[in-house]
Amino acid sequence: MNIEKMYVNKIGKGYPIIMLHGFPLDHNSLMPFESYFDEDNKWQRYYIDLPGMGQSRGAGVIQSASDVLQFLIQYIEEEFNDRKFAIVGYSFGALLATALAEQFSDQIESLFLLAPETEAETAKRTLPKRAVYHMSNLDSRIDQDELLAYRATVVLESQDNFNLFKKYILPGLNSNEDNEIVRYLSENPKLAKEPSEYLKSYKGSVTIVTGQNDNMVGFQDAFSLYCTLQEAEFVCISKAGHTLHLDRPAIIKEIFTDWLRNLNARVTP
């Protein structure tokens, strides 16, 4: 695997935080978090396009979720050596984060898991009943393919929410539209262990944030994971789906900035 071909958007200076997106997206899906960081250079953000996705296509042979994990392990070993860091994982990125917590248990100070994929196989997930709240009418000129993609996960339907989806989520969906690796990952989504097994000896803090109306991964499986953890917080947000950071940005900002304050307290001498 050639980690030099992996796309990483590094922003800021300070303590490193690795940002891992969902499937089949790219780093743009987590860029809304940029507005949550102060301009005090405390944090260096590593927005990664996961191996085989986005601008990290062609970096190596990717045929399973385990291949993506091994590529990330290699990157972290070469980029960070013995340095400590934290991880923000969204959906599939959160699943990978749990496995990284076992591999780098002494280096990862804290995990922030957003809409985490805790059950890799869709058929085994506990999902809520579909719910959509129509907040405002959509522009009739919206591209129908974009509208179809938006309505696959939307909870709070409005023009403003669609605009956020188009800016942050759609770029990853479009970049992976003809990506054969997406098919491989869909067919081989499981890692070697379950998240609870990966995290059973992890001593860092874990914050899990879910949407009550998430029809992609749900919230109940994530709560079951939370119940197994040593030092953890669990939040379930009403009227929020799989793109909960777009649905309820003010609440996510409050939770995330609190996580940053706690992380700062842990890493400040």
TrEMBL record:
Q: Does the keyword Hydrolase apply?
A: yes
Q: What Pfam families does UniProt report for this protein, alphabetically?
A: Abhydrolase_1 (PF00561)
Tell me where in this chain the AB hydrolase-1 domain is found.
15-249
GO molecular function terms listed in the Swiss-Prot or TrEMBL record: hydrolase activity
Annotated InterPro entries = AB_hydrolase_1, AB_hydrolase_fold, AB_hydrolase_sf
Protein keywords:
Hydrolase
Name this protein carries in UniProt: Alpha/beta hydrolase
Protein source organism: Bifidobacterium asteroides
